Fold this protein.
Amino acid sequence: MNSLLAERIRDGVYAVGDRLPTEIELAQELGVSRNTVREALNHLANRGLILRRRRGGTTVLGTGEERLRYRYSIDPLAVLDGVSPTTRLQLVRHATVPLPASIRQQYPNEAPDPWMHLEILRVAQADATPLSWSDVYLHPRLAKLRPLVSKFNLSIYQLIEKKAGEPLSRIDNVVKPVLIGKRLAGHLGVPPKSLGLHLSRYVFGAAGELLEVAEAVYPHERYQIEISFEMGQKPAVGKRR
């Protein structure tokens, strides 16, 4: 069952972005139990071929062959935005808001509200092609950075360090696949339910306090996140004379 469904995905019967038939429909078509289908789908989800969402159906994420073409890096700063002189930030909207409940639950002891909420579009300087969308929440004392977002070719974490003078101690990132919703699809110029990468970023200051939270979405065909390791050089071993 696993190999049959994987083969259908690989052969394009179920293309990337397509929604699979329901468990009941697959069970009836293939003449097996629903539990057998469920186990097979769970196996494919664990391999990263499909995304299963409760009451949202099952969507094809990849064929499994992408791993041969993709290069992953883990330089904690390079992975954040891939900042380069060829891109710039556009501040679309801003407001002072309570920290979202989902974040407040994770960090109940962080600065009281209101936080600065920035909606940011990263575009290519050459032709203004949208590259990513970010919802950024800034610590209340960093609200002064808002006018600088579109002025300098820097990511928000860089503005915190270089323009606010706040040393950083840690940046945590979580990357996962996502189907881009209708609102963001309009901003990014891609069809709704297009595949993308969702990056959650948590930036901490020298004292360990939360300074920035960002929820960024990257269309999969326009952005490559690279993660690289800097391997330490082993000290040379001298020969004894």
User: Anything to note?
Assistant: The CA atoms of residues 17 and 50 lie 9 Å apart. The helical segments are 2-10, 23-30, 34-46, 78-81, 101-106, 156-162, 182-188. The chain has two domains: 2-67, 78-219. The domain at 78-219 is CATH 3.40.1410.10 (Chorismate lyase).
